[in-house]
Design a protein that fits this description.
Blueprint (H helix, E strand, L loop, with lengths): L1 E3 L19 E6 L2 E6 H4 L6 H8 L3 H6 L4 E3 L4 E4 L3 H7 L2 H4 L10 H10 L9 H28 L7 H14 L5 H23 L7 E2 L5 E2 L2 H24 L3 H6 L1 H26 L2 H13 L13 H12 L1 H26 L10 H12 L12 H60 L2 H9 L8 H11 L13 H4 L2
Parallel strand pairs: 2-5
Antiparallel strand pairs: 1-2, 2-3, 4-5, 6-7
Length: 489
Amino acid sequence: IKMAGDSRFPDVDTDGSEKNEETEIVVNVGGVRQVFYGDNLNQYPETRLAELINCLSGGYDSIFSLCDDYDPGKREFYFDRDPDAFKCIIDVYYFGEIHMKKGICPICFKNEMEFWKVDLKFLDDCCKTHLSEKKEELEEIARRVQLILDDLGIDASESRWKRCQKYIWKFLEKPESSYPARVIAVLSFLFILISSVVMCVGTIPDLQVVDAEGNRMEHPTLDSIETACIGWFTVEYVLRLISSPNKLHFALSFMNIVDVLAILPFYVSLTLTHLGAKLMELSNVQQAVQALRIMRIARIFKLARHSSGLQTLTYALKRSFKELGLLLMYLAVGIFVFSALGYTMEQSHPETLFKSIPQSFWWAIITMTTVGYGDIYPKTTLGKLNAAISFLCGVIAIALPIHPIINNFVRYYNKQRVLETAAKHELELMELNSAEGKAANSKSELEDLAREGKEDPFHSSRLKVSHSDTFIHLLSEEKHYRTRLQSCK
């Protein structure tokens, strides 16, 4: 930044009394020079550019606390910062708000705003959205890396039970951690498929047997397979619950609630079968058992635990509630309108199938969704015309919100793959940095560490701290280094 206008700009050793609102400030940031005036800068006196107006009276110490270099001959201040970001930030002095240009990393832009001491409240709402999304991505990367580092780290101070608990949790919850864990995950997946197939096959009449009272029941072999699957699910759930680091969060998790719903009907049915007859009529017991056995369909949702595609679909539907609401609203309006029209137009026909408007709702639903069962259909010419318009409107109403839902699915799926790749790259950079740091350590530093009673720097827990402090800035309070995540190449 250069102070222009010699007659109005005092030297470094003056008291600054001649500075006023007409003082000119010329900014040189990364080779880009910009002229400012005091009346603009003084609107925001807490910013770094406004502080330059009064820094000369404090001497060189005050000057170099604000800038990277200063040329007293040219009276020019130099900043080794991003010029593209600076061009956006200076808009606050002219327009009172800031917009990020396309292609600038939001996290880097936030750091630039902090350097120039410009409050984030001046950033426009549309740009704050990009910033929050980027922060969430970095936090997710940091969380994944931290989980991996926690798995690799070994805390000798922990009890044997704690170490065993962590091992069981990693063994059951993280198939990628080891080959035996992957085998267990595959077995769990197969048990889910087998139990689902057995549930379906058990309803085939040819495979059922007749009991002493003449009632059909599942084949004993299928019951044995069902019992074995339930035993596996029970043991798996109990071990996961015991090894869970946060048991309350584990119990309230959606997927774990699904696991309970998949297991519970078996034990409730078993209890009712053996004890229920003493408390209620046999027919009521059989009805209750049959209703509980229907709940076995919940176990198919256990597949979502082992399928990233189903998890992505679930997330996409959660993020698409607005679009799904619009779809239901479009269909509801169309169903009401076309069912009322169809009922009115079909009343003149003596063999009409449209007995009432509520009954016509069913016809409108299957027509607008292009299912068309044919159980209810119009017989008049106007009714057929109304049906043709209704299914055309139904196709349009369904097609309009589908594209945003698909975009949410693709965006989240690609984002998850990018985050996984970024986490792996961070770990690779950590290992590379650790290897370079080990080669650079001198023998005297190792002796000092030994005298101070610290751990061996080659220990994995020591490695974890070094990685966290150096590369993943979100994992530590210290921010001494710029990382690949911060530079966002």
